[in-house]
Amino acid sequence: MNVTGLINDNNNNTFFGVEQYDDSEEPWLDKSTADYMWYVVLALGIPGNILSAIVWLRRHVASENPSAIYLAALAVNDLIFLITFGGLLVCKHAYHVFCPYLFYPIVFAVCLEPLIVLGFSVVRFIAIRRPLQVCCMHGCKNVQKKIKNVKKRKKTLQN
Asked: Could you tell me the residue ranges of all domains in the chain?
């Protein structure tokens, strides 16, 4: 197997090149073992993410903890990735017309996960940095009341 990377020769010259690597010494790296490992990941990950999404999306948990929404979104995102990747593993053995389209949800899930983590980190940062200014608004009526109050304040400041 060819491995591409940085190679350091004896003269302390580091360069980028291809080096031959013998993987016969490590038989656990063959393709069937990797497939079995993915099946174990799928068997544990799909039910685990379903249960995680159920727990985080419960009404009392999601309403009391704003971070629960981000954790539920991560669980759903991982679930989408695992299901489509499992479909891709099945397509590897038996080709189907929809197999090329399985890459789109995988790429979507892979790109969305860091953004969800970033949003979660920003919310946690705000909650830690300004703990007394973080408020949790329940329902549209509270939002409408606050918007009306802001508009009234602007009118009084303008007069």
From this structure: 28-135
